Amino acid sequence: MNTIASLLQHYAEKNNLLEFEGTMETAISGVYFHRASKSSPRQPLIYNSGIIIVGQGHKVIHFADHYIKYGAGDYLVLGVPVPLECEAFTDNNLPVMGIAISINPAMLHTLVNKMMQHKIVKLSQSKLQVTAVQSASLDTTMEQITIRLLHTLNNPLEAELFGEDIIKELVYRVICGPQGSTLIGLALHDGHYARIARSLSTIHNCYSQPITVEALADDVNMSVSSFHRAFKHVTYESPLQYLKKLRLAKAKELISSRGNKASEAALKVGYTSASQFSREFKRHFNKVPSEYLI
Predict the structure, then answer these.
(1) Whole-structure pTM value
(2) CB contact set of 52 (below 8 Å; sequence gap of 6+)
(3) Which of 99, 188, 207, 266 would give a disulfide with 126, using CB separation of 3.0 to 4.6 Å?
(4) Domains, the chain, ordered by start
(5) Looking at residue 263, what is its pLDDT?
């Protein structure tokens, strides 16, 4: 068992999480612990933006024309939330474990601005063609920071005193690393990547309301055609397909977590036709809504 996996196991033992399944926030705001005792088949999920570091097990994210495999010793950078199809695998019958770190926008802007002032980051890097999901292997420095973060998580006082500073250093190292352009593009307001990120924030806040591509494009001062191209490059989806997948994911959550009927969930996420909702739900999840009822 590697050091990161050992520290994650220690965290699970110390916090009575040896039977826990899923993701939960830790004592450090914006840092989440993930554990799954069994492999899971390919299924649609919404990946939230942030940095995911895997300590044990591995996952495969599937796209239309390629896939990304990442596992122990790797990290994933997501600049924006993305609907993806993912499958997870345990290794040697040990649970999948890792941490996810949300990125505070104000902190990110401060870091990137300071790095540009010191010429560590150049404006040209923000113009690189970046997409929503990038993976890389932990280098020695990133591994050391992750180990320090996990040691801190296992000490409540240190988590309170030093957690935020360690997260800032970790984000700084990611910016310096091979996937740094994702976060640089996110921090600079005028680039296409940052504009699409703002549109995605609008979609996530207003998904239950009528949304048009024209209104989204106008909101970020882009033509409809440019917006559509940039949106698909960043998220791998057209704006309307993204909206549909988000609505279906939110509906599934309402049904499975709150016991809503399909017709109730459909209305709450913005569908006007219950029959259309049921068809699209079945096509997307390969199950009918009632199969997710509590």
Answers:
(1) 0.90
(2) 70, 75, 76, 78, 98, 99, 100, 101
(3) 188
(4) 3-104+130-179 (2.60.120), 247-292 (1.10.10.60)
(5) 95
Contact 249, 269 (CB under 8 A): no
Place of tokens 């992750």: 146
Q: CA 50, CA 35: separation in Å to the nearest integer?
A: 17
Question: Which residue is it, tokens 């994650």?
Answer: 8
Residue 251 · residue 265 · CB < 8 Å: yes
pLDDT digits (tens, 9 = 90+) for 2-21: 999 999 999 999 999 999 99
101 in helix, strand or coil?
Answer: strand
Q: Kindly list the distances between the CA atom of residue 143 and the CA atoms of 4, 28, 182, 233, 251, in Å, as whole numbers in the listed order.
A: 8, 18, 20, 30, 38
74, β-bridge pairs? 137
Q: Determine the pLDDT at residue 140.
A: 96
Query: What does the alpha-carbon distance between residue 10 and residue 6 come to, in Å, rounded to a whole number?
Result: 6
**Placement of tokens 């309402």 in the chain:** 254
Query: Which stretches in the chain have pLDDT values below 50?
Result: none
CB atoms inside a 10 Å sphere around CB 154:
17
Q: Which residues contact 133 (CB under 8 A, 6 or more apart)?
A: 47, 61, 68, 76, 77, 78, 82, 84
Sequence-separated (6 or more) residues with CB below 8 Å from residue 2 = 55, 56, 72, 73
Q: Count CB atoms within 10 A of the CB of residue 285.
A: 17
Q: Which residues, in sequence order, are bridge partners of residue 82? A: 47
Name the 3-class secondary structure at 77. strand
What pLDDT shows up at residue 291?
Answer: 93
- Tally Cβ neighbours within 10 Å of residue 221: 10
In three-state secondary structure terms, 44 is: strand
Residue 189, pLDDT score? 72
